[in-house]
Amino acid sequence: xxxxxxxxxxxxxxxxxxxxxxxxxxxxxxxxxxxxxxxxxxxxxxxxxxxxxxxxxxxxxxxxxxxxxxxxxxxxxxxxxxxxxxxxxxxxxxxxxxxxxxxxxxxxxxxxxxx
Amino acid sequence: xxxxxxxxxxxxxxxxxxxxxxxxxxxxxxxxxxxxxxxxxxxxxxxxxxxxxxxxxxxxxxxxxxxxxxxxxxxxxxxxxxxxxxxxxxxxxxxxxxxxxxxxxxxxxxx
Lengths: 115, 111
Hints:
By secondary structure, chain A is mainly beta. Chain A has no helices and ten strands. In chain A, strands 2, 4, 5, 8, 9 and 10 form a six-stranded mixed β-sheet that branches. The mean pLDDT of chain A is 91. In chain B, strands 2, 5, 6, 10, 11 and 12 form a six-stranded mixed β-sheet that branches. Classes of the chains: A mainly beta, B mainly beta.
């Protein structure tokens, strides 16, 4: 597609359940990023993928969070045993290269609500 | 670590007023600087960028100049419209791969 695609757009689930969020980056973009945006706050970096290199997981808040990416395509972010503080909008972005001057293009996000 | 600080909102203006949103950063090395905008009900979009000192980014009537001496990247627009109502995020990208974002500034333009 033309832009970064994320699904689902909204997800409501009960505390303790596992959730999977999907990101389809712009075709040809080698770098993929996940961010979290809590209500009324800025974006927090979670994880970054670049090609087949080991991902930068430095932003993952706990071991309940994990992400995978196959090659330079789709990525899934998994949150296990969800907690209410996980409620946020989860944003995915991709860029063509990782040089500092390359902007990241964002998807519309998945709004996650934990009951 | 790297950080970005921007003025808190909301900022409420009348149409055709002058808008300034202050942004300052701390970073190792020489970051690239960005402004992103999030219109109501839409995703985050790149508004403009500057990649080195004294560069000026511009788009849709908005401008921001990379000031290394004051570590600032203030966003300005001379005459705002109702359609400029949105949340604006300043961000930096230095060594490493992630964007570091400010907390966002909500702007409301009234007719």
